Amino acid sequence: MDINKAIQESAKPFQTIKDLTPLINRIGDAKIVLLGESSHGTSEFYSIRAELSKRLIEEKGFSIVAVEGDWPASQAVNRYIKGNSNKINAKETLKAFKRWPTWMWANEEMVEFIDWLKAYNQYKDTRVGFYGIDVYSLWESIDEIIKYLKKTEPLGADLELAKKAFACFEPFNRQEDQYAISSSFFSEDCVEEVAKLLASIRSNQKLYSDDLESDLNLKMNALVAKNAEEYYRTMVKSDVDSWNTRDNHMVETLNEIRNYHGENSKVIVWEHNTHVGDASATDMKSEGMVNVGQLVREHNEKKDVYIVGFGTHQGTVIAADKWGVNLEQMIVPPAEVGSWEDVMHQAGAFNKFILFDDQNRNYFNQVIGHRAIGVVYNPVYESYGNYVPSIISKRYDAFIHVDRSMALRPLEQIEAYL
């Protein structure tokens, strides 16, 4: 069947979250729902994921939101929505996200969602948690460990191990690239220090148990330190190895969080399509790369995992033209002719979603370019590297298409690029 006709027959239009009820129903009793995005700077991706998450929490008992963010910064949100924070509001809480690109989580769309989570938790025995599963926060996580152990550590041994790890990394002035170069080319690494720290904290975890999840927080910061060390050590040697280290860490973190909250706990994951959309259905497979979506599918029963991809045909987006520079509001041009986003648009210039099943998966079984916009983006060069060859119906269980999208609303000031 022609792909345009297949979309017209399979896709359903939507305007409100109520129109997405068939998607909620199709998720069924899944325990892990992964919600993607094709950029980190599109308002609708955040707002739709928030509305879907609210329904999953209220109607299906989901109690964990895991995001592509740092563990320490996300813990500030976790404490706030559970009533364990002295922050006066969500905007103040989101200032914890200091690592570039700050707009990923410090934005107005997240403020609204966090306010909802706090209100929801207020009268619940089982409160929803908010956790960051990314790997970047090496120094911040060690800082958190030392800060906590100085106040409460009952034995002193773990504190000494944490201090040794900190001392090992200290000469690199909190510069990841300096550590990466030194460890990769001069064999000056801190592998042993972070491995011993994590092992000791794991063995002593019961000593840190309290109502504030201090045991989980301590263990996860130690896990970040161990895996971040590996990530930065491989970063200058191999893009594939560092990518796989990062995504394996995110899956390991998800597993730790679910184990902590019980085997029946249900988790919603917010990450970029490149992480949640099964890598084995893309050209990433030929390069030896894996990702969160692929690994979660492999580690769990099929019925327990549901992956939703997101995309847009055109609009505006928040991004930067170089790593680490000021964010800008940029134009997202119409999708490349023949790409997935283009054919979705050509099948009807309106918001729509497709649920893939045994009846229609074969209609979308061809390899097609699928747009991915990173935090670094230049629309002029979009044709060079912004489209990932994908089998959409294998990469996702459902797909949400926003035909014309708007830029995210960052809490910090933006520079116009229009």
UniProtKB/TrEMBL annotation:
Cross-referenced InterPro entries: Emycin_Estase, Hydrolase/PRTase-associated, UCP036794_erythomycin
Top-level taxon of origin: Bacteria
SUPFAM superfamilies attached to this UniProt entry: EreA/ChaN-like
Signal peptide: none
Coiled-coil blocks: none
This protein's name: Erythromycin esterase family protein
